[in-house]
Amino acid sequence: MNYSTLKKTAALSFAALLTAGMVSAQDSTRTVTTTTTVSDTTMSSGTTGAKVFGGRGQYKTFSIGINGGITSPFVAIGGVNDWEKAQIGIGYGLSFRSQLAHSFGLQLDLHGGQVKGRNEDANGNPEQIGSRTAFATKFYSATLSGVVNVATIDYIRRKNAINFFITGGAGLAFYKPSYAQTVAQYNQGTDAFDFYLNDANGNPTTPGQPGSGTSKRTVKELIIPIGAGVKFRLTDAVALNLGYTMNFIDGYNFDGTATQRDTRDKFSYGYAGLEFTLGGKGKPNLDWVNPVAMMYDELYDETLRKEVAALKDRMTSVEGAINDLKKDSDGDGVADQFDKCPNTPAGSVVDGSGCVIVFPKDTTMNAGTGAAYSNIQFEFDSSVLRTSSYPALDATSADLRASGATVQVNGYASSEGTAAHNMSLSRDRANSVKTYLVNSGVSASKVKVKAYGETNPIADNSTEEGRVLNRRVSFTKK
Predict the structure, then answer these.
(1) Keyword annotations for this protein (predicted)?
(2) What share of the chain is helix, strand, coil (3-state, %, to 5)?
């Protein structure tokens, strides 16, 4: 893996950590203690005193871990390697983690161990190729990584047993590479290996040839660990971790040799370990929290349920009052609470108080009756048709459809408001009547609309009774 690929891998890993930390969710450690009956279903909800928005202080958030495992100079994603065969090396580590959220934490890792590899012939025996047979590198590292819980086996249960996580970070590696030139030297064991360092072109950094033991200093270089694993919950405070980490070194000498290829070294570490979360026994472990489940539980908190029940009662009362306000027993378009003349005959034209309007005779057709071409009355400042107008409109529609005649719909208003407003209102009233007639089957071309505003009153606009009569639509049959 070349240096640019190393940088890209690190950048992509950190981006993945941030994204996963925003969207993942884990289950909490809430215990089942209270039974609540909702409708026909009995549900269990528990409480530990922790709240969704209560902050980190209500949880245990700090943990210490120990781990051990095996190392290899090869990594899962492949890439160029200076050796043909990986040999199992031993690794070990200590971790300190602060859980910042239910899905994300920061972890300091201290690792050590040995990474080994060799060349082999077709029979699997060690083989000298050029001036190299095997290498063994002792290392120590300190890294700071983000740890993201990305998934769980069961999102619904309050105490999940398994979490999956990914890690990524950076730090420093300290190592001493050693090198066996011959099979005989390899057979003597790693204590017989020579220590040396080469530059990027494969040349010794100090006078002499590789294997001469000319350089035994410890190398300090950047290391980028990227890994994944699975965590098993043993208790609220103890977890078993199984993981795998690929470690990318910003140097050429980690594997005991440097070639002219621009390939920086790498190694992997597979491990198992125990993690111990510290804190008071009364606090749940933030690592296992499921905010969705906690919010669901809080919905069944006894106090909240009482408040919800009281709110439902109030809503029922409000709905009942609204239904009472809307009730219109005689169907005249005026609610019972405001109807001063209850039980008016069906089809009667009434005023705003529900009383029948007596129309004086005028030059228009059938004014004030339920017959065809009767005047259509409207409420104050309204162009909405009353239900009491439907019989007259239906009769008018039937006559127009039968006769094929044309009718002019004349809209009027009382004198309240400006003349311009009343002209617009009278046009709206006439159009409401036309719409009704067209929807009932009358051809639109047979219905003409004309607005008169507050002109041509049929009653005195200085009285309420007169103004009620002037809020009308009349018909002129042609």
Answers:
(1) Cell outer membrane, Cell projection, Cilium, Flagellum, Ion transport, Membrane, Porin, Signal, Transmembrane, Transmembrane beta strand, Transport
(2) 25, 35, 40
Reported pTM: 0.52
| pLDDT digit string, tens, across residues 81-133 | 888 888 899 999 999 999 998 889 999 999 999 999 999 988 889 998 887 88
CB-CB contact of 179 with 135 (8 Å): yes
End-to-end alpha carbon distance in the chain: 94
Choose among 96, 89, 57, 49: nearest CA to 73. Answer: 89
The segments of the chain whose pLDDT lies below 70 read 1-54, 154-159, 196-217, 258-262, 291-302, 304, 347-348, 357-369
Do β-strands 407-411 and 447-451 pair in parallel, antiparallel, or remain unpaired? parallel
Q: What is the pLDDT of residue 385?
A: 93
Going by their DSSP bridges, the two strands 376-377 and 162-180 should be labelled as: unpaired
CB neighbour list of residue 285: distance below 8 Å, 6 or more residues apart: 29, 59, 60, 236, 237, 277, 279
- Which tokens hold the place of 383? 């162009």
- Domain positions in the chain: 3-36+43-48+59-291, 357-477
SS (H, E, C) 306-338: HHHHHHHHHHHHHHHHHHHHHCCCCCCCCCHHH
Contacts of 472 (CB under 8 A, 6+ apart): 375, 376, 377, 378, 412, 429, 458
Name the phi and psi angles at 366, rounded to 5: 45, 45
Nearest-angstrom CA–CA distance, 436 and 394: 9
Q: What single-letter amino acid sits at 23?
A: V
Backbone angles phi, psi at 119, to 5 degrees: -100, 145
- Dist. CA 423–CA 430, nearest whole Å: 11
Largest distance between two CA atoms of the chain: 131
Which of 2.40.160.20, 3.40.50.1260, 3.10.180.10, 2.120.10.80 is the CATH number of 3-36+43-48+59-291? 2.40.160.20
Within 10 angstroms of residue 163's Cβ, the number of other Cβ atoms is 23
Encoded tokens for 147: 């740890």
